[in-house]
Every structure is written in structure tokens, then in C-alpha cells.
Design brief:
heterodimer, A: about 70 residues, mainly alpha, 3 helices, about 0% strand, rod-shaped, B: alpha/beta, 8 strands, globular
Chain lengths: ~70, ~250
């Protein structure tokens, strides 16, 4: 362990404590940032869902055509 | 020169130890000399994934800390034990005994411990990489191990609590000018397919996301019975671990 007072004051443990206590984190701001991120991801998910629905619709149309083809054959 | 990398998370249950154990095995299989150190000192468990029993683990990091043994006596070469034919994989485990954990919490340890471990592992085994599997959270002791490392991987799930915690952790690490990367783990498959996911999370937490690993039930069902990637070399989880290992190698090579 560091011996002199000066060294102790500059120890990594002290630096960690000092940084953590001086951070003054604005939790409301953090929550807003995370909420904004979640909204973005949700919007992307909705887009994907929408695209999946369109693909399913097109597939069902193709499916009908296929069945019709088979019936015709 | 040996590089040290902390695998850390804000919360528990993110798959940190699973990532550490599997990633180390892949890196060793790629030909690297890797050492993994269980720094989850109050709740260690990495030895279980490696299948290292109490019989094999004669000395632990705790013994080294209190001068009961030299570091080399506590380090196990598990390369052959795991059936690896390339590289080297060393393991330094921690004690699960409550009395030894209590002693550690009561008496603490030298803040230079983590640097000393890296230096000794370099001297004894010429390892390329030391992987520290840390205890989650922002306590002083766990931050010591993260900040003492050359770089860190922040493992997070796609969960509001994890994402928020990772954002805060990355902010703390930035204050120390530490290089950190994020790994999105256990991502629901539907989310994992979002092309913008990695860039959005990178922007949010202020650390580049270098892997998006989907959730695989097989990994959960494996229940820490050995190193998954070695038992299932063709599984998609293994492919993801190989990609992550390649990314880390490219980071190490600068």
C-alpha cells in the first residue's frame, strides 16, 4: 500500500471514490436518453412487423396462385 | 506484451462468465496464450464452467492474496484438460468458501493486485491476453479491476435495467479514459435481426457494440456443464463467439 499521505491521496481507490462522488448524475436525463432509445427500437420493430405482415400477405397471395395452379394441373 | 481485458457488467445474469469462458477457449483455439482470472471474488463460479473441481483447484487467488502460495501455484494449465490442441489456456480461480470470501471483504487487498497478476502471468507464461471475469456493479473493488485493465467488454442484455446500467458504467469508464466495448448478449432473436441495433446501442452507451449475440435456449440448457463452444463447435452461438474473438484479435493488433 502507498505510504506517504500524498501517494494515498492519489491512489486509484481514492480516484475512484472521488470520480464517483463527483459525478452528480442526472437520473431524469439518463431515463430520458434510455426512453428515447427504446422508442427508436420500438419504431424499428414496428417497421419490421409491418414488413413481415406485407410479406405474409404476398406469400398468401402466392399460395393462392400456387393452389390455383395445382388445381388447374 | 500482455494485454488485460475485463469482462464486466452493471448487473448480474448478463452471461458475463459464460462469455469469458467461451471467448477464452475460442481465442486459445485460435493459437493465443490466454489466462482467465475469476475476479468475481464474492460469487465466483468460472471454475464450474471449466469443470475444475476442488480436487484440482488446490490453491486459489485468495491464497495468493494472503501470501499462502505463489501465483504460479494457483494457476492451472487447462489446455489439455479441455481438449484444446492449439494455443494455451490458463485459469486462476477464486475460493467459494464463505470464510475466505468474508476475510477478503473484511481485509480488502492491494489496489495494485490486478496489475501485479497481469505482470506475473506475462512473466511466468508469456500470455498474450489476461481475461478478468469481474463482479458486476460499480463498487470500488470491482471498478479497480476494470480500471486496472487495458480494455473492457461491457456485457449487457436488451433489458431496460441493463441498458441503463451500461450507459452509467460507460460514463464512469470514460471519466478514467478507459477503452471499453459493449457486447449485446441474450438478445431476443427478433431484436437481433435489427440492422441498426448495434449502432443505436453504441450511440446510446458511448461504447462501440462489437457483438450482438442472440439468445440460444441450448446455451441455457447446457447449464454451465463445460465450455459450450468446445462441446458444440457448429452451433450458431459458437459462430458468434468466433466472430467476437476475431474482432478482439483485430482490436489487439490495432
Amino acid at each position: 500500500m502507498p505510504s506517504s499521505k500524498d501517494e494515498r491521496e492519489h491512489s486509484l481507490r481514492d480516484q475512484i471514490t472521488s470520480v464517483l462522488t463527483s459525478m452528480q448524475t442526472d437520473m431524469a436525463k439518463v431515463e430520458n436518453i434510455v426512453a428515447e432509445f427504446e422508442r427508436k427500437i420500438e419504431a424499428i420493430m414496428n417497421k419490421i412487423d409491418d414488413l413481415e405482415q406485407r410479406v405474409s400477405y404476398l406469400e398468401s397471395l402466392l399460395g393462392i396462385s400456387k393452389e390455383s395452379d395445382e388445381e388447374g394441373a | 506484451m500482455t494485454v488485460s481485458m475485463a469482462i464486466h457488467s452493471y448487473r448480474g445474469g448478463t452471461g458475463k462468465s459464460t462469455t469469458a469462458a467461451n471467448l477464452a477457449a475460442v481465442l486459445a483455439a485460435m493459437g493465443l496464450k490466454v489466462a482467465t482470472v475469476d475476479l468475481d471474488l464474492t460469487s465466483p463460479g468460472l471454475h464450474m464452467i471449466y469443470g475444475v473441481t476442488a480436487n484440482l483447484l488446490k490453491h486459489t487467488l485468495n491464497d495468493y492474496l494472503y501470501g499462502k502460495c505463489k501465483l504460479g501455484n494457483a494457476v492451472l494449465d487447462i489446455t489439455r484438460y479441455l481438449g484444446l490442441s492449439r494455443g494455451r489456456l490458463y485459469f486462476l480461480g477464486s475460493s467459494m468458501k464463505p470464510e475466505e470470501i468474508a476475510k477478503l471483504l473484511r481485509e480488502g487487498y492491494d489496489e495494485n493486485l490486478f496489475r501485479k497478476i497481469t505482470e506475473e502471468l506475462e512473466k511466468l507464461y508469456s500470455v498474450d491476453l489476461v481475461i478478468f471475469d469481474t463482479h458486476p456493479g460499480l463498487t470500488e473493488d470491482t471498478l479497480l479491476s476494470v480500471i486496472s485493465s487495458d480494455l473492457s467488454l461491457l456485457v449487457t442484455r436488451m433489458d431496460k435495467q441493463d441498458i441503463t446500467g451500461t450507459y452509467i458504467t460507460a460514463q464512469v469508464l470514460r471519466r478514467f479514459k478507459k477503452v471499453s466495448y459493449a457486447v449485446l448478449n441474450m438478445v431476443p432473436p427478433k431484436f437481433a435481426s435489427i440492422p441498426e441495433l448495434a449502432s443505436e446501442v453504441s450511440r446510446l452507451v458511448g461504447a462501440p457494440v462489437i457483438a450482438v449475440i442472440p439468445f440460444y435456449e441450448d446455451v441455457l440448457e447446457h447449464r454451465s456443464h463445460g465450455v459450450f463452444v468446445l462441446k458444440h463447435p457448429r452451433h450458431p452461438f459458437t459462430t458468434q463467439m468466433v466472430k467476437l474473438a476475431e474482432r478482439i484479435v483485430s482490436i489487439l493488433r490495432g
